[in-house]
Design goal:
Order of helices and strands: HEEEEEEEEHEEH
Number of strands: 10
Largest sheet: 10 strands, antiparallel
Strand order of the largest sheet: 1-2-3-4-5-8-7-6-9-10
Number of helices: 3
Strand content: 35-45%
Oligomer: single chain
Number of domains: 1
CATH architecture: Sandwich
CATH superfamily: Invasion associated locus B (IalB) protein
CATH class: Mainly Beta
Helix content: 10-25%
């Protein structure tokens, strides 16, 4: 994926919409279509990327984020903001490499169901080229959001290193 100014601007806009005070956030770098950031006030660090563009209707701007919260002991936590509001009992599936992993979620958000699945997603993100989440929206229509993974491993590593000093 190219690092176009529009794509970089879009990543920054998503960050402005998804977390607290913009001034507190520090950029740790851009890697492909992934960015790494540190927010020392919370403290937390995360890698984040917007989903591939789509002509389909969207309720939300979709992104994938991998966060670390040192004070909570939480590291490499996967979160997806999906493009549509999910149904009451959503069936959400992540396709990553040869893996098919069921996710849990609600509203427009999805997460791995447990630590084992979270670790499997992180490992697969380091060794494949893309991932796609499939689900049904609140009206029962199928939809998908996809992310390229070029740069994801570097962004995750930068976020982890960025949080090493934020205990």
């Amino acid at each position: 994926m190219l690092r176009s100014p529009a794509r970089i601007f879009a990543v920054i806009c998503v960050l402005a919409l998804t977390a607290g005070t913009v001034q507190a956030r520090e950029s740790l770098g851009l890697y492909g279509s992934w960015g790494a950031f540190r927010d020392p006030l919370i403290p937390r660090c995360y890698a984040i990327a917007m989903a591939e563009p789509s002509a389909s209707r969207r309720d939300y701007q979709p992104y994938a984020a991998i966060g670390t919260w040192p004070r909570r002991g939480a590291r490499n936590q996967v979160h997806f903001r999906l493009s549509r509001k999910l149904g009451a009992e959503p069936a959400i599936t992540l396709h990553i490499g040869a893996e098919r992993i069921g996710l849990i979620g609600g509203g427009g958000d999805a997460w791995p169901a447990n630590d084992h699945d979270n670790a499997a997603i992180i490992a697969a993100m380091r060794s494949t080229t893309s991932m796609t989440v499939n689900a049904r929206d609140a009206q029962g229509r199928l939809f998908a959001n996809s992310w390229p993974l070029a740069g994801a491993a570097s962004a995750m590593d930068a976020a982890a290193i960025g949080c090493a000093r934020l205990r």
